[in-house]
Design goal:
Blueprint lengths: L1 H8 L3 E2 L6 E2 L10 H40 L3 H9 L6 H17 L4 H14 L3 H17 L3 H18 L1
Helix pairs in contact: 4-5, 6-7
Length: about 170
């Protein structure tokens, strides 16, 4: 505080109402030990508040980066759980991660098809083998009709694999 005041008073300035210019002055501050303790605590609280704000900002940035990474690759949620809490890998936890993946995908227009793929996977999971085969063939026919022969062939290969697995 003394340094700030003395730096300001070290500049030449006119004294109001007098034909005098003050070219240098020096200030010396003192206070009781209670005043010094109070000022120290105040500075410490301000520093702690600033540190907490910076930490909170970093946590938000880290969360946003993790969310964006999960939008690109939703399987990161499962990998994160496996690394951080391997004891938490239960079928219930994996089901919750599937729900989380669908929610994250629905928030990102670029990966909205992830939710559709999950829905199709759930739909096919409990179907009879011949019904699954029929559905995959119908999807392949649609892919062919819309000019996607590679996708159609890929769906047909899945159909053949499903038929082999059923036998």
């Amino acid at each position: 505080m003394e340094k700030r005041v003395n730096a300001h008073l070290g500049l030449s300035s006119p004294v109001p109402g007098m034909p005098v210019s003050l070219s240098w002055a020096s200030v010396r501050l003192w206070g009781t030990s209670d005043d010094i303790d109070s000022a120290t605590r105040s500075l410490q609280r301000a520093y702690e508040h600033k540190t907490k704000e910076e930490q909170h900002r970093r946590e938000i940035e880290l969360s946003e980066a993790f969310r964006d990474a999960m939008r690109k690759d939703p399987s990161l949620a499962l990998a994160h759980l496996a690394i951080r809490h391997p004891q938490g890998l239960s079928s219930e936890a994996i089901g919750q991660i599937d729900q989380l993946v669908v929610k994250i995908a629905s928030c990102d227009p670029g990966t909205s098809w992830v939710a559709t793929a999950k829905l199709l996977q759930e739909l096919i999971r409990d179907m009879e083998a011949d019904t699954t085969s029929y559905l995959l063939e119908e999807l392949a026919a649609l892919a062919t009709r819309f000019g996607q022969p590679a996708a159609a062939e890929h769906l047909r290969s899945h159909r053949r694999q499903a038929e082999i697995a059923a036998k």
